[in-house]
Amino acid sequence: MSIDWAALGQVFGVTLVVTVGIVGLFTVGIVGTARTRTEGATATADAGAPSTGARLGGLAAYAVCAAAVAYGIYLIVAA
Amino acid sequence: MEHITLLIGIVIVTALVFDFTNGFHDTANAMATTISTGALQPKIAVAMSAVLNLVGAFLSVEVAKTISGGIIDESAGIRPEVIFAGLVGAIVWNLLTWLAGLPSSSSHALFGGLIGATLVSVGTDGVHGGAVVMKVLIPAVAAPVVAGIASMAATRLTYRLARGRDERETAKGYRAGQIASAALVSLAHGTNDAQKTMGVITLALITGGVVAPHADPPLWVIASAGMAIALGTYLGGWRIIRTMGKGITDIQPPQGFAAQTGAAATILASSHLGFALSTTQVCSGSVMGSGLGRKGGVVRWSTAVRMVVAWCLTLPAAGLVSAGAALLADQGDWGVAAVAILALGICGAIWAASRRKPIDHTNVNEAEATEPPGVVTAALQTVTPPPAGTLNPAEGEEPAPAASAPRATTATAAG
Questions:
Q1: Interface contacts (A, B; CB < 8 Å)
Q2: Where are the membrane-spanning stretches (chain A) (predicted)?
Q3: For a Cys staple, B29 with which of A53, B43, B85, B283, CB 3.0–4.6 Å?
């Protein structure tokens, strides 16, 4: 009986990097496209709207996440 | 399809029933947090999961050549009776844990059942002890740890990054992301677990000489296995969904997204790097991790401990039931009949017991715990273990509609 530490460590590393990476990127996407917090009910529709740059960055982050999902589907199908 | 004996027929039906309980049991993995964060309506969530499970069953070209992945020696005289007994043990254990609302691994139940039946019918030579440790025990310990740490880190990060944003606004994004992650988990589940049942049925057909050895499963086997798992998924193990979505911790959209993404990443990484981890344990672990990752988040350790106890018991308990079933089934035709009747009786009794406190899509999001909400309670719970869970799980599921709404405000205040 031998425990395959290398495989376990690899799984752990890849999982950690991918999870944190995807969640982080997706959050960047959300933050980039969401309004900043505005005070209560006085907020108008335009208040706190993200800048064009932030919005583009957010969309790019979303695109990377979509690619990751596509790769995940590829992994499942090709298995 | 010619020359299918009655016994082979019984094995096929039993395998499909197991497949059904498998889908039923594992809906929670993909959909529990999706339902509890409100990303999808309960019925829509289970329907989506069912469709993806069905699709998954047809997708994979890699057929489950061995039903147990080398844990039992399938050449050492595994007869249909042994497979039958193993399946019965797995089904009974799956239903018992469902009644208790505990997520436990369906694969471990199947392994345990087959091991128990093999030990009785074939002897210790039929079981590879090293493979049990490598394929069951180590992954069972590793899965929740790996998924939990990843989800905890991801939860921390996402809360940090999204600070200062309108929570209602970001929640929409998180929910959308969570649906994608949950879909991946469902699809992966369909390809993995439906394959297992196909493997069992194919093995039964091979031992009965209906199909040639090493043959791929016939189309009707793939279709029926896919249908069984999809039907089970659609009917939904609402008890387990409630435990995972509400019982372990209170999940907010960012946590649900982090947990589900962590689970999807762990499942895909592990199955493609050759260190398969159990879906159930991965998902439970990631839910716990996301509970720990949020400031002011509370993991109900009494529920978590009950769950871990169920994991530890799964293999031996399913094995024990199957060992008894194998002993009886080995007596001949009347033995097999007796096992079938007993199994039906037990399943009926469990179902009857579940009807006393039904949990379905209408009350799945009601909080399980009854402790009064409050900032002090939340703070205390982080430093002291929460009140011990009731031993009788039926009592623990006492619905407390009032508790869920105030809790949410508490959590926001604390976070």
A1: 136
A2: 12-34, 54-77
A3: B283
